């Protein structure tokens, strides 16, 4: 029975590590605990008024919540591993009152101290297998801290790329170039560079799905509000006279179609055409495309 309880705790740790792996290093559209938490917070925030103020906090709060969930389940899982073997399989420092506490409380305390790599030493494993398992928890705690820092450092460049594209599209929308103005070498370069930026954002939504739940602020920096104009530019490029401009227009149209497919598969699930998907994306972020 003791080993069965310990295996339950080990299973809880493995579920957490799997979720961390699929969130940070091998994202899939099948989701996981982190995606469920972020989606739930996003939908909850959209019900509040004023809507934009609440939605603007979802991204940072979701990341904090997910990291807290990872840390909490690792600590709890390892505490369950220790619990059936406490206190007999552990040694206590002289004068320590820890052995007088309930076994579960000592197990949670030992797990918390170990995952934080504090190494206070008042409780230490005595049996051989526990002396191997306990340092492993410390390694996982260090890996969790490193993964959290790298996650934060990776997500904000992705947000910057998305907002730069949004602002660029907003400026083009204000200038509103005609087909004749685009039908030149500069127009081909413009459409080609936009296609490249759209592809980068598409990759960001694949690699960092949590970026979807970050609010972009004003309409000029919101891709949800400006992406529809990119489709209009692509259409103008496709009807231009110069073949290089038409090719660039086709590239931009293809990149936008790919972006719409990713948005629909991972977040919106409308099953509609590109225009419908971008309209749903704008509505989900409180914008009009």
UniProtKB/TrEMBL annotation:
One of its GO terms (biological process) is monoatomic ion transmembrane transport. Keywords: Ion channel, Ion transport, Membrane, Transmembrane, Transmembrane helix, Transport. Pfam families: Ion_trans_2. InterPro entries: K_chnl_dom. Residues 99-154 form the Potassium channel domain. It comes from the Bacteria. The chain crosses the membrane at residues 57-83, 138-159. The keyword Kinase does not apply. The keyword Membrane applies. This is Two pore domain potassium channel family protein.
């Amino acid at each position: 029975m003791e080993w069965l309880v310990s295996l339950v705790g080990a299973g809880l740790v493995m579920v957490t590590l799997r979720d961390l792996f699929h969130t940070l290093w091998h994202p899939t559209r099948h989701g996981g605990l982190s995606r469920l938490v972020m989606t739930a917070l996003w939908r909850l925030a959209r019900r509040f008024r004023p809507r934009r103020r609440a939605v603007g906090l979802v991204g940072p709060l979701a990341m904090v919540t997910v990291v807290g969930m990872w840390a909490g389940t690792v600590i709890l899982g390892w505490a369950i591993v220790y619990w059936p073997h406490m206190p007999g399989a552990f040694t206590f420092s002289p004068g320590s009152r820890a052995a007088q506490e309930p076994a579960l409380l000592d197990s949670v305390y030992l797990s918390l101290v170990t995952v934080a790599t504090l190494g206070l030493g008042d409780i230490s494993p005595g049996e051989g297998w526990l002396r191997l398992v306990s340092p492993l928890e410390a390694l996982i705690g260090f890996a969790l801290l490193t993964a959290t820092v790298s996650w934060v450092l990776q997500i904000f460049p992705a947000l910057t790329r998305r907002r730069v594209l949004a602002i660029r599209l907003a400026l083009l929308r204000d200038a509103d170039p005609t087909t004749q103005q685009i039908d030149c070498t500069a127009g081909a370069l413009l459409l080609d560079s936009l296609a490249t930026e759209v592809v980068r954002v598409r990759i960001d939504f694949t690699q960092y799905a949590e970026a979807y739940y970050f609010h972009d602020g004003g309409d000029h920096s919101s891709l949800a509000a400006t992406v529809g104009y990119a489709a209009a530019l692509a259409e103008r490029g496709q009807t231009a006279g110069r073949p290089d401009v038409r090719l660039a227009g086709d590239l931009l149209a293809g990149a936008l179609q790919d972006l719409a497919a990713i948005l629909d598969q991972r977040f919106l699930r409308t099953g509609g055409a590109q225009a419908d998907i971008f309209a749903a994306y704008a509505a989900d972020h409180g914008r009009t495309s």
